[in-house]
Amino acid sequence: MMQSPESASRRIVIAGGGVAGLTLAVALKQALGEGFRIIIADPALTGPARADSRAYAVAAAARNMLEALGVWRLVETASTPMTEMVITDSRTSDLVRPVFLSFDGEVEPGQPFAHMVENGALMAALLQVSRANGVELRAEGVRSGAVDDGGMTAVSFAGGESLDCALLVAADGARSKLREQAGIGWVGWSYPQSGIVATIGHERPHEGRAVEHFLPSGPFAILPLPDGGKLGHRSSIVWTEASENVPALLALDDSDLLLEVERRFGLELGEITMENRPGAYPLSFGVARRFVGERLALLGDAAHVIHPIAGQGLNLGLKDVAALAEAIVDAARLGLDVGGSEVLEDYEKGRRFDTVAMGVVTDGLNRLFSNDSTPLRLARDLGLGLVERMPGLKRFFIREAAGLGESTPRLLKGEML
Predict the structure, then answer these.
(1) Residue 414: DSSP 8-state
(2) Against a cut of 0.90, is the pTM above it?
């Protein structure tokens, strides 16, 4: 039976059921209601979730959006506010790591600039809210999407079904097949570094303090998690290391690996233990030449990948969500085509500059700090010291890190669409 253009014009398919894809689906379904069919397609939606040691620094603006969507209440008890951010610059062998820069963790009184949330808790909350709001979850991938003779996008699912829709959203990751099929170019490069992530138990409380040690091989971040584990307190580490060293490090037995972590983690939090075996992933930078195609929008890692040095990867994706949801909902309420070129151009204009700017900043920071050059060390430590003495500049950096800059989409302000 042929589908009518009218029904197809009120369907949106999102390929990829990660944090960005699910958040977009919830935002659209809550704003557009029963009049629109919102479909998430991802083979990972079937079966139990895999063990995952990732944790995210959810910025204040992203938290505003999750609150507005009814997601944050489900993860709040599993989150930890960042009350302070401390930055050091040293060598791994240094016995003392002087603090060159510290930030108060509040953008406003009582409002932390970020909360740490573990991936499993956030995904579980998003899936619960998606189901409660009537988002259609399909445990299969999207093979392709192409504009058909009727002017809609014909989406082909892995199970063999084909479905027309007004808009296909590619939230299928950095190696997006849909981006490649659309002929959208990718500009980027790989770093000679990998990110090692793990959960660490420790005997003393972190008190909400996040620490970033800049070491010659890359930053070593210690990020506060909710209490628990063998020693009563936990933190997440994001350990940037030269890729050539990673296989040997991960091959170490538990005791030797713990010693390597301890050399970087330090002794301020007392005895430490590994709550899980670490995982590693290669680091890279990349940005799509366009964020949109014909009836196609790229979202999250399908549009951009940046270095984790500033912890902004997830928040960039959630900014995409807020901008795209606002453009789609505004168009729908005016009776316009939600997958039309004007809607997609508005989304791209709203996101491309911010994304490229953040990518340039994180790339520059990584190149500046991930080395053992004495002249560069002196220059950057001088720069950190100057920022430390300028409260106004520090407040600006905190607000930017919190995602509360100029031209913020409504959802990031905590306003419903």
Answers:
(1) T
(2) yes
In sequence order, the β-bridge partners of residue 87 are 101, 212
Choose among 57, 6, 2: nearest CA to 335: 6
* DSSP three-state, residue 405: coil
The DSSP call for residue 332 is H
Angle at 322 between CA 319 and CA 327, to 5 degrees: 125
Q: How far is 175 from 207, CA to CA, in rounded Å?
A: 38
Q: Give how far the C-alpha of residue 239 lies from the chain's centroid of Cα atoms, to the nearest Å.
A: 17
Q: Give the confidence band of 128 by pLDDT, cuts at 50, 70, 90.
A: very high
Which long-range contacts (C-beta less than 8 Å, at least 24 apart) are formed by 355-360? 355/287, 355/303, 355/304, 355/316, 356/287, 358/306, 358/310, 358/312, 358/316, 359/285, 359/287, 359/304, 359/306
Look at the alpha carbons of 161, 167, 173, 179 in this order and tell me if their dihedral is positive or negative.
Answer: positive
Per-residue pLDDT tens digits for 177-219:
999 999 999 999 999 999 999 999 999 999 999 999 988 888 9
Domains annotated for the chain, with CATH where assigned, are 5-51+117-188+284-368 (3.50.50.60)
Do you know the residue count of the chain? 417
* Summary count for the chain: helices (H), strands (E): 12, 23
Tokens of 386: 């100057």
CA 410-19-403 angle, to 5 degrees, is 40
